[in-house]
Amino acid sequence: MADWIADVLGEEFEQLTLELGDDDQGPVVATLVRALPPAQGWWDRLRGRRPLLDDVDVLYVHGWSDYFFQKRLARFWTARGARFFALDLRKYGRSLRDGQTPGYVADLATYDEDIAAALDAMGHAIDGSDSRRLVLLGHSTGGLTLSLWASRHPDAADAVILNSPWLEFQIAPVRAAIAPMVELQARLRPREVAPQVDLGFYSRAQQEVADPDDPMEVNPLWRPTQTMAVYAGWLHAILSGHRTVASGLSIPVPVCVLLSARSAVPTRWSDELTAADSVLVVDDIARAALRLGSSVTVERIDGALHDVFLSRREAREDAYRRLERWVTGWQASGGALVQR
User: What's the distance, CA 26 to chain centroid?
Assistant: First the structure.
C-alpha cells in the first residue's frame, strides 16, 4: 500500500491513494484523507479523562460533482477525540485521472470496493469485529451510497449521519415513469449525456453566504460551478438506488438526517436560494428517510443550503448544534441500538 502523504488541505490533513485495479478507462484509484485528534494532555490522562469520541472513527463520503474540502467538519469530530477520514471516490476530486469520465459508475454497488479499501486502511473490518466504533457520514449522493451500503452490511457501522441525502428523485412521481426509458438508454448508450439544466445558482448561493471568518478554498476542477455532465448509465444507477430506498432499507443502527427546512426551485436567481435547498425536494427526502431503518431522527434546519454545513452562519451553527446534540445522545445511549 502507498504511504500517507501531505494533503492539499494543509498540515492537519494527510492522504492515502487506494489502488482499485483497472477498468475500461485505465487504472482506478480512490483517495482517503485523514485528520487525527490532538494528543491528550498528560493531566487529563492522569485524571482518567477521555474525549467524548476517543474510540470512534468517522468515514465521510461526498456528493455528486464534489470532493472533500470541509476542514471545519473534520475538526468538529477531531475536537471530540474521533479520527476523521474522508473518501474521494473513484473518478472524483483527488482520485480523478486523465482520460476518465468524471464521477461515472453504472452501479452504486461499485463503490463497495472503494469503501472496503478505505475501511481496510482505517483498520476496520466490515463484520464490525474491531474495537473502534464506526460512524458513516454522507452528503447528497454520498448519503444515498452509504445508506444502501449500510443496509447491505448491517454489522459494519455503529451510526449513520446523512447531510441532505439524495434518497428520492427531485420529482418523486416521475421516477417510475422515466425509469424504463433511462434503463434502455443505459443499456444501449450508457455514456450518452442526459439532459440537465444547471445555471450555477447553487454555487453562487454558497459564495453569497460564505463566512470570511471561516473561509473555504475549493478546487474548481474538482468541484465545478456548474455540475459535471450526467450520463445515462449513472442516472440509471441513481434511480435504481432510489427505488431500493422506496422499498425500504434495514439499517439496524441509529440514523440522523440533517435537512434544510425548505426547498427552492432554481429557475432564476433570488435571495431565497441563499436560505433553502435548491437541489432536492426536502419534504420528499424527509419522508424517504423514514424508510431507512427503525431508528431515524430528521433534523430540519431553517435557512440551510443543500450542504447544511456550508450554509449562512446562523444556519450552519444550528446544524452543528443539532449534530452535537445527536452525537452526545448517541454516545450516552451506548452508541448503538443493537448488541453485536
Answer: 26
